[in-house]
C-alpha cells in the first residue's frame, strides 16, 4: 500500500508597502520595520521588501536592518534590486517583468558567490512569461493578480484561477499566487496548484498577524 504524498507547508509571503502607512517618511520606515518584525514572528516565510522609490543607500539600510530583526527561518527578498540584495545580505531578489532578466541575475550571483542559499524569483502575468523565467533559472514565480486588488490594477484585469492552474501545471517550480488573497480565497488558490500566497494588505493591515498566518495554513 503506497503512502499518500506529504502535505506541503503553504509558503506565506508579505509584500511591503510603506507608503500605505501613516506619518512622515522616517515614521513610515520605523512602522514598516515593526511590521516586518511582527510578520516574521507570526510565522511568515518570506518578506518581499518592495520599496522601489527609496534611494540605494536608504533601501540597503532598510534591508540590512530587516535582516537583523528577523530569525534565520524568515527570508528577506528585495524587489528589483539585486545589487542591494547582495550588498545587504538578503536571502534573495524578486524580479519584475521590467527588471533585469532572471538569467542575468543568475550569472551575477554565480560569478560572485558560488555557494550560499539565495533565491531568485520572478513576477509573471502569463504562461509564456512563467515558462521563460523557469527556463532562465528562476527558483519560484509569483503569478497574478489572481483576484481583483487595487495594488495590481496596473497589470490589467485579474488572471483568475484557471490561468493560475495552467501556470502551476505547466511549470515545475513553486508558484505563489498574488492579488486579492484572503483567508477565504486561499483554498481555491491551493486547489489550483499554488505552493503559497503573497499579499500586502492582508498582512500589513492585520490586527492579529499570527491568526492570519494560522488561518491561511489551516484553510487549505
What's this, in brief?
This protein has about 220 residues and is an alpha/beta fold. The chain has helices at about 25-40, 55-70, 80-90, 100-110, 125-135, 160-170, 185-190, 200-205, 210-220; strands at about 10-15, 45-50, 75-80, 90-95, 120-125, 140-145, 175-180, 195-200.
List keywords for this structure.
220 residues, eight-stranded parallel β-barrel, TIM Barrel, globular, 9 helices, alpha/beta
- How do the strands line up in the largest sheet? 1-2-3-4-5-6-7-8
Morphology: globular
- Order of H and E elements: EHEHEHEHEHEHEHEHH
What does the average pLDDT come to? 92
Low-confidence stretches: 1-6
**From the alpha-carbon coordinates, what is the Rg to the nearest angstrom?**
17 Å
CATH evolutionary superfamily: Aldolase class I
Briefly note the CATH topology name. Answer: TIM Barrel
CATH architecture: Alpha-Beta Barrel
Top-tier CATH class:
Alpha Beta
Class based on secondary structure composition and strand pairing = alpha/beta
Largest sheet: 8 strands, parallel, barrel
Distance linking N and C termini: 25 Å
Q: Note the total helix count.
A: 9
* Domains (count): 1
Strand content: 15-25%
Please provide a written account of the structure:
With 220 residues, the protein is of the alpha/beta class. It has one domain: TIM Barrel (Alpha-Beta Barrel). It has an eight-stranded parallel β-barrel with strand order 1-2-3-4-5-6-7-8, surrounded by six helices. β3, α3 and β4 form a beta-alpha-beta unit. The two termini are 25 Å apart. The relative contact order is 0.15.
Amino acid at each position: 500500500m503506497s503512502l499518500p504524498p506529504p502535505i506541503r507547508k503553504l509558503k506565506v509571503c508579505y509584500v511591503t508597502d510603506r507608503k500605505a502607512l501613516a506619518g512622515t517618511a522616517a515614521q513610515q520606515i520605523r512602522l514598516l520595520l515593526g511590521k516586518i518584525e511582527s510578520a516574521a514572528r507570526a510565522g511568515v516565510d518570506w518578506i518581499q521588501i518592495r520599496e522601489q522609490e527609496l534611494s540605494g543607500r536608504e533601501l540597503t539600510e532598510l534591508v540590512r536592518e530587516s535582516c537583523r530583526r528577523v530569525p534565520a527561518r524568515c527570508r528577506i527578498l528585495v524587489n528589483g534590486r539585486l545589487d542591494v540584495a547582495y550588498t545587504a545580505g538578503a536571502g534573495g531578489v524578486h524580479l519584475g517583468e521590467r527588471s533585469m532578466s532572471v538569467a542575468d541575475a543568475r550569472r551575477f550571483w554565480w560569478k560572485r558567490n558560488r555557494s550560499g542559499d539565495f533565491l531568485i524569483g520572478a513576477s509573471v502575468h502569463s504562461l509564456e512569461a512563467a515558462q521563460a523565467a523557469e527556463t532562465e533559472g528562476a527558483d519560484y514565480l509569483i503569478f497574478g493578480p489572481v483576484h481583483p486588488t487595487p495594488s495590481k490594477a496596473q497589470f490589467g484585469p485579474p488572471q483568475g484561477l484557471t490561468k493560475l492552474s495552467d501556470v502551476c501545471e505547466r511549470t515545475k517550480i513553486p508558484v505563489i499566487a498574488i492579488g486579492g488573497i484572503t483567508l477565504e480565497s486561499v483554498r481555491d488558490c491551493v486547489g489550483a496548484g499554488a505552493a503559497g500566497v503573497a499579499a500586502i494588505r492582508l498582512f500589513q493591515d492585520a490586527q492579529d498577524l499570527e491568526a492570519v498566518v494560522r488561518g491561511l495554513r489551516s484553510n487549505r
